[in-house]
Amino acid sequence: MADIKVDVLVIGAGPTGLGAAKRLNHINGPSWLILDANNKAGGLASTDVTPEGFLYDVGGHVIFSHYKYFDDCIDEALPKPDDWYTHQRISYVRYKGQWVPYPFQNNISMLPKEDQVKCIDGLIDAAMAARVATDKPKDFDEWILRTCGEGVADVFMRPYNFKVWAVPTTKMQCQWLGERVAAPDVKLVTRNVILNKTAGNWGPNATFRFPARDGTGGIWIAVSDTLPEKNKRYGEKGEVTKVDAEKKIVTLKDGTTVGYDKLINTMAVDHLVEKMGNQELITLSKGLYYSSTHVIGVGIRGERPERIGDKCWLYFPEDNCPFYRATIFSNYSPYNQPQADVKLPTLYKADGSKADSSEAKPGPYWSIMLEVSQSTMKPVDEENILKDCIQGLINTEMIKPEDEIISTYHRKFDHGYPTPSLEREGVLKELLPKLQAQDIWSRGRFGSWRYEVGNQDHSFMLGVEAVDNIVCGAVELTLNYPDFVNTRPNTERRLDQPFYSAGTPPKELPTREKA
Known about the structure:
The protein is an alpha/beta fold. It is 30% helix and 21% strand. It has helices at 15-27, 68-77, 113-132, 140-165, 186-195, 215-225, 269-276, 279-285, 385-395, 424-436, 456-472, 477-480, 482-486, and strands at residues 4-11, 32-36, 47-49, 55-57, 84-88, 92-95, 98-101, 207-211, 232-234, 240-244, 249-252, 257-265, 290-301, 313-315, 325-327, 348-349, 365-374, 404-418, 440-442. The strands form four sheets. Strands 7-6-14-15-17-13-18-16 form an eight-stranded mixed sheet. Strands 1, 2, 9, 10, 11, 12 and 19 form a seven-stranded mixed sheet that branches. A hairpin with a 2-residue loop joins strand 6 and strand 7. The longest helix has 26 residues, at 140-165. It is globular, with a radius of gyration of 24 Å.
């Protein structure tokens, strides 16, 4: 017999696990418990704070949403207007010493003339080839060539995507793309080149929100705080060491056993099957590929430079820096770094030379967060990664050699990006149903391994929809139909609506006239 018994057990208190817990609490039906090995909620959407007081998220996270239920839940957790800042995305690609507005492929009017010619030639060739193509692209590289042409592929898409994914584009499938990559409009691009104009903002995150305090992690701590304490078990007492799928018992690090009827797992699915000890599933999971992410933070003394301005995040396809993306984290909130009156000593100058003085001095301060990918196909010099990144900031003119470095941060996340590899769907179509046949719903960024529904709103709703599937058999739209949920307002669920499971209809059913 287990020490604790619940109807639904949720492993992991990141966005997916909290989505499941929030829905279970909303339904107020099945008994439930949520576990996490960390002392605080957030998972891969957490925020760290350096000893000097600089905040850094686990990678580049901002809030933009496809779902009203997600909006309701985070607004309930952080309800005051001054809990949030709203920003217009100001994003650029660094190329040959200049800033090209994002998306790059729509703004080749900013490139040197020889690159413009190369890119337009490729775009025209691609457009002509697309008119007679009878088959779909077999991989991401072929999609790039058919959509953008050889010029944009060589100048930006191939080198940038290798820096992001740490695998060649030829080893990635293209079904994941959806709203993630802008397809250029050949006529618009050509017109802008002739008129020397740039294209406007593109994509679902052109406007985004960011929490005023505590970083992205603060959102999920606040969401967790809306849940009953008796249903939460965090820290060592919530760390899973074994999953017995046959007996439906989970063993925790402190020896406690938890029995369940249904299990919603949000830890990486390859870790789950190892804790299950199921050799068939372990072998199957080895067909899934991922890359690691290094998050680097640099805190700098001084006013934010004019050349940085109000930029949000920036892309770096070239090899003069190890990072693929830089976020001006101090631009998201004035509370992401120490206030100007806080006195801090200089660690060293950006070029590595000694500080002029060891005396603690006041600010102001600003900060940059960098991301570097790593895989077996793209090794990283981990010992020197911080130094190499700071040199990369100098190389790309983000900072100057004499700038005073006040604080640094480096953390490696082994599971950073779930790679949409050519083999992925074949594995998932076998692995996820095998788990579900054992009453295990594996969901989330690495729980279900689908990057295209790996944003915070998607991840949260993967948990919500898993609960609805368990309770009343509802279709999990986000997991199974990403393009559908990404191209419509998803307003069916609201936090203030009562939940009715099968067999307990509302007192008055809506009619066509009333609807």
